[in-house]
Amino acid sequence: MATIKDVAKRAGVGVGTVSRVIVGSAPVSAETAMRVRRAIAELRFRPSHAARVLQKGQSQTIGVFAPLVHGAFYTPILHTIYTTLRSYGRHMVVDFGQSRESERQDALDGVEFLTDRGCDGLLVMGTALKPADIDRIAELQPNFVLLNRRTPRFRAQCFAPNHEAAGAAVAHALCDSGHRRLAVIEGPRDSADNRQRMRGFRSALAERGIDPESVPYEQGDFSPESGRTAAQTLLARGCKFTALFCANDEMAIGALAGLSQMGLSVPGDLSVMGYDGIDLTALTVPPLTTVLIPWQQIVTHALHHLLNQCYGMSLPVERDIPAQVLWRESLARRS
Description:
Helix content: 40-55%
Number of helices: 12
Radius of gyration: 26 Å
Structural class: alpha/beta
Number of domains: 3
CATH class of the largest domain: Alpha Beta
Strand order of the largest sheet: 7-6-8-9-10-11
Largest sheet: 6 strands, mixed
C-alpha cells in the first residue's frame, strides 16, 4: 500500500507539499499540484482517516447515543440518522445503553465514550437525563442535540414531538369513534414522554366529559410482553371497556396477542389503539390504529441543526411537526 512518502517521491516534492495539496491548507503552484495529484492517482494512494482528522481538526463523524438497541422503535431512527449523515458525506459512531433502569448513567457514559472518539457533534436520545447531566454534555461537546427531550436552557438543541398534543389526539379519536368506556396500558411512570402523552390524554378525556379517574390503568414497560400481560390483567380484574389505548405500539402489538389468546376478537369485541406509528403496525392482524409521531422528520431536522453547528452548513430546520392519527381496522366505530 502506497504511503504519503511514496507520493512525495514520485512527484518529486516534499511530504509537506503533498499534505498541503490533499488538504488545500496553503497555496501550491498549479504545476506542482498537478504532479502530486497524478502521483496519487498512479499509486492509488488514499490518505488515512486519522491523518485527515489531524490535518483538518475534524473527524467528519457524529456520535449517537441510543438507550436501547432492540425493538422496532429505534431501528428506523438509527437508519434515518445514518442515511441523512451519509447524504452529507459524514459518518456516525453509535453507543447503546444496557437497560431502562440504567439509562441515565448509560447516557452519561456513552457521551464520554463518543467524545473521547473525537466526534464533531453528538445526538443524544433519552429522557432520563437531569438538567445537570445536560450541562455536562454541553461542557464535553458544545455541538449537540437532544432527541425526544425539551429543556428551557438548551431550547435550540432540543427536538421532540408534542407528546401532550399527540396524547390528546388519541382521546379525541377514541371518543369520535363512539367509545366512552376506555382502558389504558401506560408506559413507565418515570418516563417523561410517557407522562406527557398521558397528561394530554387525560386532559382531552375531561374535555369530552369522561372522568379520567374512572378509566382503569395498567402499567407496562413499552415491551410487547408487558402489553400482553397488562391486557390480560385488565380483563382478569373484570374491567369493562370497549376500547384499549396502549401508550406505545409495541405494547399494543402485545395486547393484540393477549386478547387473541383469551378468545377475544379485535375489533369485534374490543378496539385497540397504539402510539408511535412504527412500521409493524400496518402488518398486525388487524392492522393497528395508531398516532404517527413524525420521527423521521424530527430526526432529520435535528441533524440539520447539528450539521449547521459543526460544519457551517445552512440546512433548513423545522421544529413544529404535528402527529397524525393513522386510522386502521383495529378501531371500530360505535353508534
